[in-house]
Design brief:
363 residues, alpha+beta, 4-stranded mixed β-sheet, 11 helices
C-alpha cells in the first residue's frame, strides 16, 4: 500500500479557505476608510499617514486587548456578530483615556479549523466597531492551528494605535483636588467578569434563551451579550477642548482599581454608589451569586463604563455635551487630597441587602 502524499490541508490547515476569507471581508475593511488610511488589505503591513490625518505634533499611543471568556458564551450560543465590537471597544476605550484618537486597528483571529461563515460574522463586528470608533481596519491575521484549540473554538486579539497632540495628552497631571467625577453609563457587563458570569450560569441553571427574570421582554442571553460601549466620539471633542482632566476606563478591577490609575500621588477619588441606580442586570448578578458589595465593585463595572474627572465650573457644559452625544451621565463623586486610591461608599438601595458599606483601594 502506497501512502498518500502529505499536504498542509491534510494536516488541517486550508490556505484556500484563508484566501477566500480575505476576499470576502475586503468590502468590510474598505468601509472603515478614514483620512490617513485607505483601508486596503493583502499586503504585509498597513500604512497610516499622520500628516493626512491632520496632526502637527502628535504622540502615538498603542493598546491591545482581547474579549476574554465572553467568547466562550458567544461560541456556545452561536452569537458571533457583536464580539468584534467588544474587541475594538476594549482597545479604543483605552486610547481615549490618554486623550488619543484611535487611528487604525488590526485583529488576530485564531482557531482550530477556519469556518469562514463564523469568521466573517466576527470580522463584520470588528469593522462595525471600527466604524463606531472612527478608526480604520488596516490589517489582521487569521491562524488555523489544529491541536491548539478545541474544535469550534476561536480566540481574538486586537491591536490599535491612536494619536494625540502633545499638549492635549491626558497623563494624570491635570487632575486637581475638587475635580468632580462624572460616570458614563455602561451598556451592560461589557467584557469583564465573564468567568464569574459563566460559573453562575452553570451552577444556577440559567435558562439563557428565555426572558430574563428581571425583564420579560428580552432574553437573558441578549442581556449578557450586549456589546461593550465605545465612548470615543462622545469624549474626543471634550478632550480636545481641554474640558476633561482625566478619564478612567472601567474594566477588570472595577471602579476600585481603575480610577486610581489616572490619579497622581496625593489625590484620591471618593465615589458615592448611591449616585446612580444599579442596573437590573447587575442586581440580578449580585443576588444570584450573593456577591459581596466590594467584590461587585472589583469584578464588574456596576453600570459605569467610563469615569471623567472634570473641573467644577465645566461640569454643566460637559454633562450637556455628553448627553447630546447619547451618553447617560451621573455625577458620582469627587477628587480629594489624600493617599492615591479610591473609596466607594453605598447603601442598601444600590449595592447590597445590608445597610451601608464602604470599600477602599489604595494604589
Amino acid at each position: 500500500m502506497t501512502d498518500a502524499p502529505y499536504s498542509y490541508a491534510k494536516a488541517g490547515v486550508s490556505i484556500a479557505a484563508g484566501n477566500a476569507l480575505v476576499r470576502a471581508i475586503a468590502p468590510l475593511v474598505r468601509a472603515t476608510r478614514r483620512p490617513g488610511a485607505d483601508a486596503e488589505i493583502g499586503g504585509f503591513g498597513g500604512f497610516f499617514d499622520l500628516k493626512a490625518a491632520g496632526y502637527a505634533d502628535p504622540l502615538l499611543v498603542a493598546a491591545n486587548d482581547g474579549v476574554g471568556t465572553k467568547l466562550k458564551l458567544a461560541i456556545e450560543s452561536n452569537r458571533h456578530d457583536t464580539v468584534g465590537i467588544d474587541l475594538v471597544a476594549m482597545c479604543v476605550n483605552d486610547l481615549i483615556v490618554q486623550g488619543a484618537e484611535p487611528l487604525f486597528f488590526l485583529d488576530y483571529f485564531a482557531c482550530a479549523k477556519l469556518d469562514n461563515a463564523i469568521a466573517e460574522r466576527v470580522i463584520a463586528g470588528i469593522a462595525e466597531g471600527c466604524r463606531i470608533a472612527g478608526c480604520a481596519l488596516i490589517g489582521g491575521e487569521t491562524a488555523e492551528m489544529p491541536g491548539m484549540y478545541a474544535e469550534g473554538d476561536y480566540d481574538l486579539a486586537g491591536f490599535s494605535v491612536g494619536a494625540v497632540e502633545r499638549a492635549q495628552a491626558l497623563t494624570g497631571t491635570h487632575v486637581q483636588a475638587d475635580d468632580m467625577l462624572l460616570g458614563l453609563a455602561s451598556s451592560g457587563i461589557h467584557s469583564n467578569g465573564f468567568s464569574l458570569v459563566r460559573r453562575l450560569a452553570a451552577d444556577k441553571g440559567w435558562k439563557l434563551y428565555r426572558p430574563a427574570l428581571f425583564d420579560q421582554d428580552r432574553l437573558l442571553i441578549d442581556w449578557l451579550m450586549e456589546p461593550t460601549r465605545i465612548y470615543v466620539k462622545s469624549l474626543l471633542p471634550l478632550v480636545r477642548a481641554g474640558k476633561v482632566s482625566a478619564l478612567a476606563h472601567i474594566t477588570g478591577g472595577g471602579l476600585l482599581e481603575n480610577v486610581p490609575r489616572v490619579l497622581p500621588e496625593g489625590l484620591r477619588a471618593e465615589i458615592d454608589a448611591d449616585a446612580w441606580p444599579q442596573s437590573r442586570l447587575m442586581a440580578f448578578l449580585q443576588a444570584q451569586g450573593m456577591i459581596e458589595p466590594e467584590e461587585m465593585a472589583r469584578t464588574f463595572n456596576c453600570g459605569i463604563g467610563m469615569v471623567a474627572a472634570v473641573r467644577g465650573e465645566d461640569v454643566a457644559e460637559v454633562t450637556a455635551a455628553l448627553k447630546a452625544s447619547g451618553e447617560t451621565i451621573f455625577p458620582i463623586g469627587r477628587i480629594v487630597a489624600g493617599t492615591r486610591g479610591c473609596t466607594v461608599t453605598g447603601s442598601i438601595e444600590t449595592w447590597s441587602a445590608r445597610s451601608g458599606w464602604s470599600a477602599t483601594h489604595d494604589a
